Each structure stands twice: as structure tokens, then as C-alpha cells.
Amino acid sequence: MLLRVMGLNYRTAPVEVRERFSLSREAIRRGLENLDEYDGLSEAVILSTCNRLEIYSVAAEGCEGSAAEFLNDLTGGVEEKYLYEYGGEDCARHLFEVAASLDSLVLGEGQILSQVKDAYALAKEVGATATILNTLFQRAIASGKSVRTATKIACSSVSVSSAAVELAAAKLGGLEKKSALIFGAGRMARLTAQHLKARGVGKIFVANRHLERAQEMAQEIGGEAVLWENALKVADGVDIIITSTGAPHYVVKPWQTQQLMTRRGGRGIFFIDIAVPRDVDPEVGKIHGVTLYNIDDLEAVVESHVAARRLEAESARKIVEADVAALMERFKYLKFQPLMADLSNRAEKIRERELKRISGKLSDLSEEERRAVEQMTRKIVRKLLRLPMMKLNGAAGTHEENFYAAAVKALFRE
Predict the structure, then answer these.
(1) Active site positions, annotated
(2) 407 vs 342, 348, 410, 414, CA distance in Å?
(3) Tell me, what's the pLDDT at 272?
(4) What is the pLDDT of residue 227?
(5) In whole angstroms, what is the distance from residue 249 CA to residue 277 CA?
(6) Hey, what domains does the chain have and what are their CATH numbers?
(7) I want to staple 41 with a disulfide (CB 3.0 to 4.6 A). Which of 66, 108, 239, 311 is the partner?
(8) First-residue to last-residue Cα distance in the chain
(9) Which element (helix H / strand E) includes 28?
């Protein structure tokens, strides 16, 4: 059994690379549904967020290349310089740190735990997980919850949306009585709107391809929904545009922005693009009067808040390390489960066969007596197997495990 993770994140790949490998839910589902096409690859979970793409997998010995092949087929190929790979305990530790938001751009942010849950739920729904990844993800999710309840790592934490608003406030000298246009009506867009309101922004316009969603969000925040196709016309008088859609292509283009700036008569405008893939064509940032920031530019804002949570992060890492150690102890025994299950199944088949063979001689027994015979034979099997099972469990994780595994196979398998 080879447990590993391969992927890229905000540390190893800039946004212009990450956006090329942002996978939709349907693309992930299709990939997992075809997992059996890859030799020896028995389990997989795909985690795709704005800041990372990771594939957790379980492969048979000698099939190490299957996970890389799976990743390449999903993405069309990723340059090795952007990738990291961890196996075994390091893989487990990495996932636990991800779930605990210790590996996030925003230390302590809460969205990643939900994203880990969703990634695991989809893989399980498709049937792409079994004992190893079920155990790994269930323990990692539980550990992530423990970190958030036992530490203050999430207290006063900065999210991507709040960092975007803070950046705007710093660059514009405050946001009171300013106006803003938000592209998108998803969770991130809603959080951004709430932070804008909290900072005193006077008017917020909401644009979404589905007008009813824009209207719903606008009603929640006391803003105004606008037609998608008219959004940049509304922007003639706004100070800030924040984009957070799930579009696979640019929704704000240079020619549109050039027309906007002409109408504004040289009055500057501030763009923050927190979407991955990006919503704003990078060429927009070259237009006179436009200031454009993307999600990677928020790192400095986030870093200024990290120091206050570093002590909490140390406490969180202690929880993670203890949970990883407990998991690896559990995995020692999981290694022998298929062998022990095989041994139990063989013994049970022999028991059933022998009972069936003499069933004619037991025809005079009452139903209660038949159950007594059934129970007695089951107990005999369990007692005969008890010592071999104990020896296998006791050898797990020691230098004797290979000896005992080979001995049981040689003695009990045909």
C-alpha cells in the first residue's frame, strides 16, 4: 500500500499557473469515476481550491507511476517544478495541516476544512475511497475541528475576502462613503460584501450571470443588483471593483475597461481579483488610471496578521502531531487487515462447507439445537484463529511483520 499526495499550491505556483489547473466538480467526478483505468490505483480524493490542487491516492506496490499518470490526465500535464509529493506519514501530516488551516495562505481560515470535507464526500460518493482514505480523511477532518475548538487560531483571522477589503482600505485611505461593484454572488462574494459594509462602504452593486442570485445577495447586504451585461456601465461612478466568480475565462476585458476609463474622464479605479481562475485580464492593469491586484497580492496583508496567531499555530501543530501519530499507529494494523480477513473468510467457508456436508445427519435436531451447533462451530473457528491473529497484530510495525505475514500466507493460503 502506497499512500501519497501530489499537488501544487500558492507556495509552489503563482495564480497564473494555478488557474490553469482549477478543476470543476464535474471534472473531478469524471476523473474519479474512471479511477479503475489506472493500474494499481485503488483509492483517490481530489482537493481543488483557489489556492491548491492536490490528489491523495492509494496505490499497490510497484504502481508508483499511476498517481502521476492520473494527475496528468486530469490536468493535461503539470510542470514538475510546480509540484510537491509526499508519501506515507508525510502525506498524512500534510493533509492534517491542510485541514487545520496551517498550510493555508490565510492561517486559521475556516473555509478549507469545509473544502476538505466536500472533496472527501464527493470521492466517497463516487466510490473512489476505501479503508485507507476513509480512515485518513475522517481523522484529518476530526483533527481540523479539534484545532479550531482547542486553540484560538481562528480568532480575528483574516480571510481572503477580508484581506481584499483591507487592501482596498489601505490603498484608498479608508472606505467610508466609497462605492463598490462586486462580480459574483457566491460565498466569497457575500463575505466580501459584508466586510465592505462593515468598513463603511456606502453603495454596493452586485452583478451575476443569474440576476436572481444577484438580487438575493443585494437584498441581504442592502445593495443593488445590476444586469451582468450592464455591470461596467454602473462602474462609471464606483471606486472599487472586486471580482469573485467561478467563470473559466476573463469576465473583465481590456477593451471594456478602456471604454470605462474614457467615460470616467481619467478618474482612477481600483480592481481586486480574488478569483481562481482570474476574472480580470492582466492587461487591464496596464490601462492608465487602473490599479489591479490579484489573490497573490494579498499575501502581504495576510502576513501582517499572522504574527498574532503564530503561538496558536504552535499549539495547533502539537494537536496535529499527536493525531498523526495515532493515525500511523492505526495504519500499522490496517496493513494486515486484508490478510486477516482472507484468513477468516477461508476458515468460515470451511466451517460452512462441513456443516452443509453433515446437515442430513442433523435433520432430527430442533431449531434451537441447530443454532447451538452453529454457535459452537463459530467459536471453534474463532479460538483456532485467535493466536495467529494476535501474532499478526503484535508484529505490526516491527521488524517481524514481514516474517509473520509470509508465514501466514505460506501456511494458510493455497
Answers:
(1) 50
(2) 14, 20, 5, 13
(3) 92
(4) 93
(5) 7
(6) 2-150 (3.30.460.30), 160-305 (3.40.50.720), 351-412 (no CATH)
(7) 66
(8) 23
(9) helix 25-33
